[in-house]
């Protein structure tokens, strides 16, 4: 709680300018709801604010459930933690992580999923959203869930037209495969490219999917050569490198990105005339605390899909920096797996720090040593900010080895174009490769026989979230989406597209 108060709590909102918008912040939460949620035990822990910061803490104390330890057979590790979400890139944020959740979201007609007539999520009798994962969510995530339910249902229509003999189960399974692959592709060559905005990363992430020979070559000739030439997607067989597939605790830690969230959402009028740079008129601001859970879903019904998406698109998200963690998240109601509220409020900033320690994630310096990066020997190696250096020295008793990972990543000098730290980037790089390379549906089973010709074509012709938005809301995107990517601020000037690799172009 000392760390959260002295080093994390937002003093003044720092944004990412035009690089990353609130859709991008919602997208990574959308992905986390697909990938990670730790099994809890029934034992409660209580944290109390120390005297030095108690007056500055929204909660003087708070209770939460301990992460449950389970037996594991991995190497010499006797204990680990169980993930209650499916870690695969299987769209479980839309479809659910178990049979009960999967059944709950289906119509059982023509393979389709439930969705409201207004294009938003349906709700049950208690007002809870009906989607694959609704725990600790807000309307930015549920808007994306609704979009990909529409994508799934559109794929079902396309498959049924092409293959009229397909039954409900076949349509559902093939549409799910196709939708999940579209989501994985968008994350790989669209979201990540905006997060790590450099020419090198554009080339690298596209090579992960298409290989160095590029999309045109792969579309024409298929997967040729190994990973370098042909990319990870479409390899002849998956490769786990001898380790059962899992998402590591380090992966969980580097995806702690709550600082991306603003304090308020700026609601735009999509019926107004475009202003300079195609900016819609700002009508009101809504506190983010009012946009979570059931209250948020009610608010979204008033806002509507188009206004919500346009509003998020035109608003820059927060930067992953010191003193930029939303204060409203320090007094928030956590939820059960079914989306119902719990009785105890929590300080999420303090809880993020506690969870890394509880789950034995290495502190910043040891973490960097373990991934072959140079550790810091003094605070000045980490940052040039004198106020930050002074506060770090006070909080950690001038011992750099005690520095928490989350704080170190926020304080770290950023590589130009990177919205994240170099430390986090190394984990991103390793796991972005592993998630594709280990999955049979992106390697040996990534073909027309498994996806169907129509489904395979759908994946191969979808390049970005902008493509998906245009497919379902062409008037909205034509009118308001001016930027190259749907993840950068929508009124930004479009950037020239530079196909990669350029050295395979045919000479004029």
From TrEMBL:
<keyword id="KW-0349">Heme</keyword>
<keyword id="KW-0444">Lipid biosynthesis</keyword>
<keyword id="KW-0925">Oxylipin biosynthesis</keyword>
<keyword id="KW-0479">Metal-binding</keyword>
<dbReference type="InterPro" id="IPR019791">
    <property type="entry name" value="Haem_peroxidase_animal"/>
</dbReference>
<dbReference type="InterPro" id="IPR010255">
    <property type="entry name" value="Haem_peroxidase_sf"/>
</dbReference>
<protein>
    <submittedName>
        <fullName>Peroxidase superfamily protein</fullName>
    </submittedName>
</protein>
<keyword id="KW-0276">Fatty acid metabolism</keyword>
<keyword id="KW-0275">Fatty acid biosynthesis</keyword>
<dbReference type="GO" id="GO:0046872">
    <property type="term" value="F:metal ion binding"/>
</dbReference>
<dbReference type="GO" id="GO:0016702">
    <property type="term" value="F:oxidoreductase activity, acting on single donors with incorporation of molecular oxygen, incorporation of two atoms of oxygen"/>
</dbReference>
<dbReference type="GO" id="GO:0004601">
    <property type="term" value="F:peroxidase activity"/>
</dbReference>
<feature type="binding site" description="axial binding residue">
    <location>
        <position position="258"/>
    </location>
    <ligand>
        <name>heme b</name>
    </ligand>
</feature>
<keyword id="KW-0560">Oxidoreductase</keyword>
<dbReference type="GO" id="GO:0031408">
    <property type="term" value="P:oxylipin biosynthetic process"/>
</dbReference>
<keyword id="KW-0223">Dioxygenase</keyword>
<dbReference type="GO" id="GO:0006633">
    <property type="term" value="P:fatty acid biosynthetic process"/>
</dbReference>
<dbReference type="GO" id="GO:0006979">
    <property type="term" value="P:response to oxidative stress"/>
</dbReference>
<keyword id="KW-0575">Peroxidase</keyword>
<keyword id="KW-0443">Lipid metabolism</keyword>
<dbReference type="InterPro" id="IPR050783">
    <property type="entry name" value="Oxylipin_biosynth_metab"/>
</dbReference>
<dbReference type="InterPro" id="IPR037120">
    <property type="entry name" value="Haem_peroxidase_sf_animal"/>
</dbReference>
<keyword id="KW-0408">Iron</keyword>
<dbReference type="Pfam" id="PF03098">
    <property type="entry name" value="An_peroxidase"/>
</dbReference>
<dbReference type="GO" id="GO:0020037">
    <property type="term" value="F:heme binding"/>
</dbReference>
<dbReference type="InterPro" id="IPR034815">
    <property type="entry name" value="A_dioxygenase"/>
</dbReference>
């Amino acid at each position: 709680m000392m760390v959260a108060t002295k080093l994390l709590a937002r003093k003044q909102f720092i944004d990412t300018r035009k690089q990353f918008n609130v859709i991008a912040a919602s997208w990574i939460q959308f992905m986390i709801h697909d990938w990670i949620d730790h099994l809890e035990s029934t034992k409660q822990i209580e944290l109390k604010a120390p005297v030095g910061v108690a007056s500055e803490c929204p909660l003087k104390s708070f209770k939460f459930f301990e992460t449950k330890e389970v037996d594991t057979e991995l190497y010499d590790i006797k204990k680990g933690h169980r993930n209650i979400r499916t870690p695969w890139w299987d769209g479980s944020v839309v479809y659910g992580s178990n049979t009960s959740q999967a059944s709950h979201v289906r119509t059982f007609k023509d393979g389709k999923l439930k969705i409201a007539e207004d294009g938003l999520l349906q709700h049950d009798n208690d007002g809870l959203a009906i989607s694959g994962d609704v725990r600790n969510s807000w309307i930015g995530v549920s808007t994306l869930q609704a979009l990909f339910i529409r994508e799934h249902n559109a794929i079902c229509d396309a498959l049924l037209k092409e293959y009229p003999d397909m039954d409900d189960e076949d349509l559902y399974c093939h549409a799910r495969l196709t939708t999940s692959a579209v989501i994985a592709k968008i994350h790989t060559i669209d979201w990540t490219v905006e997060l790590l905005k450099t020419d090198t990363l554009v080339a690298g992430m596209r090579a992960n999917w298409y290989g160095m020979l590029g999309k045109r070559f792969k579309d024409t000739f298929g997967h040729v050569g190994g990973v370098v030439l042909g990319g990870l997607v479409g390899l002849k067989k998956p490769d786990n490198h001898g380790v059962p597939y899992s998402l590591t605790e380090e992966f969980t830690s580097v995806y702690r990105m709550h600082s991306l969230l603003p304090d308020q959402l700026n609601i735009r009028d999509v019926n107004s005339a475009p202003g300079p740079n195609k900016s819609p008129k700002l009508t009101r601001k809504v506190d983010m605390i009012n946009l979570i859970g059931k209250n948020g879903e009610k608010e979204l019904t008033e806002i509507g899909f188009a206004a919500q998406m346009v509003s998020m698109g035109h608003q820059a998200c927060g930067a992953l920096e010191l003193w930029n963690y939303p204060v409203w998240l320090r007094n928030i109601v956590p939820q059960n797996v079914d989306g119902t509220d719990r009785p105890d409020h929590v300080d999420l900033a303090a809880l993020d720090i506690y969870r890394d320690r509880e789950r034995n994630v290495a502190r910043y310096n040891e973490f960097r040593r373990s991934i072959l990066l140079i550790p810091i020997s003094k605070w000045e190696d980490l940052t040039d900010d004198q106020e930050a250096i002074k506060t770090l020295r006070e909080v950690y008793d001038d011992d750099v080895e005690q520095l928490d990972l989350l704080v170190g990543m926020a304080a770290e000098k950023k590589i130009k174009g990177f919205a994240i730290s170099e430390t986090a980037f190394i984990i991103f790089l390793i796991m972005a490769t592993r998630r594709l390379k280990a999955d049979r549906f992106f390697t040996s089973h990534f073909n027309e026989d498994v996806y169907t010709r129509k489904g395979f074509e759908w994946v191969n012709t979808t390049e970005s979230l902008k493509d998906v938005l245009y497919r379902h809301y062409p008037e909205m995107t034509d009118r308001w989406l001016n930027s190259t990517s749907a993840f950068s601020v929508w009124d930004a000037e479009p950037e020239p597209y530079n196909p990669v690799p350029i050295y395979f172009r045919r000479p004029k």
